Amino acid sequence: MEVGQKIKLVRLHRGLTQKQLGDLLNLGDGGANRIAQYEIGYRVPKPSLLKEIAKVLDVKEETFFVSDKYLLDILRTIMWYDFEHRRSFKLAEATLDASIAPIESKTIELRGNACTTWGDSIAPAPATVLWMNVPLVNDLMREWLTRKQELASHAITKSEYLEWLLQWPASSDMAGKREPKRQWRKAK
After folding, report:
1. For the whole prediction, is pTM greater than 0.85?
2. Range of the domain at 40
């Protein structure tokens, strides 16, 4: 969702007109027009104004600074968090009975190739599973699972894993679908 669409979504949710939001932001007589231009994507507010819009609409600033184009950054952040705080994320391939709405499903099956790196085992407690209906993301997550499994089984070294992470996404082979743009494995 683009920033203008988010502004409109939150503005309507807060029950404000474009004029009211313009007034709250002290945009003057043309405030409603400027808000309309932001919402349709004709103009993009400067970061300082976005921060003010977030304050006026009572939302976190990040609401307007995160978009679909940051998906790789979000994945990178998760992977780095996992690297820095070992045992944070457990990865496993899962199958889901598609005939049941995902939120209601109790039929998620974790396959036997789960990765519990650093010597941990999967906790017996129920787990919440997150997946995306986006093939690109699923390929990237599957590759991350593969790298964690390779590290746990000593098929790759910690140094190689770190190099893969440092070069990611250029080091990605998209779960075996392409050659990586950057090589990260040490020559044997």
Report:
1. no
2. 3-65
